[in-house]
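Progress against Task 2.4 (sequence-to-structure conversion) is shown through the following example record, which the project officer requested during the mid-term review.
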Amino acid sequence: MEISDLVLAQLLFLPMLYASVTDITRFKVYNHLNFPLFFAGIFFHGFLWGMPGVSSAMTGSLIGFAILFVPYLLGGLGAGDVKFVMAIGAWIGVQEVLDGVVFGCIALLIYYVLIISVRVETDGIVSKLRQMLFGLVHYCRNFSLPERTETVQQLARSGDSRKRRQLIPFSAMMSIGMCVSLLT
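Structure tokens generated for the chain above:
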């Protein structure tokens, strides 16, 4: 029994849309979406294919986690983003989650370019990118995490609109990437 990528895209459309809307409007992807989506993906694959299906779903989920764990530790994205990609990985598997993250990063890059070309004031975004790059270099050299000045979560809760403009709705970009991955 084979499930087509188009069927998976249709099943995941509403959860990805919901995650995108909450991420764009509140910079938050809620656990009341992520956890049921994750467990439903594992159950779905287990029901259809037994233990090999559960193993495949768990592997897709772990790959999603592994890809995003270091950027999360460096303060570049929130825990909800990581959990969202893990949940989607439980549904679509290893190759599609890898492709989806690549396509999502391309969408993220296009979004960055559009923001930078529209805004005169790019200091916040460039500063955040520099901070993440410095954190990654520090982590690689010392295998310890540098002190973060402000995490994504703190910026999202901030009442300062200038600080909030530094944020990118990461899960919305990943949703685009996952759809492209499934539909190509």
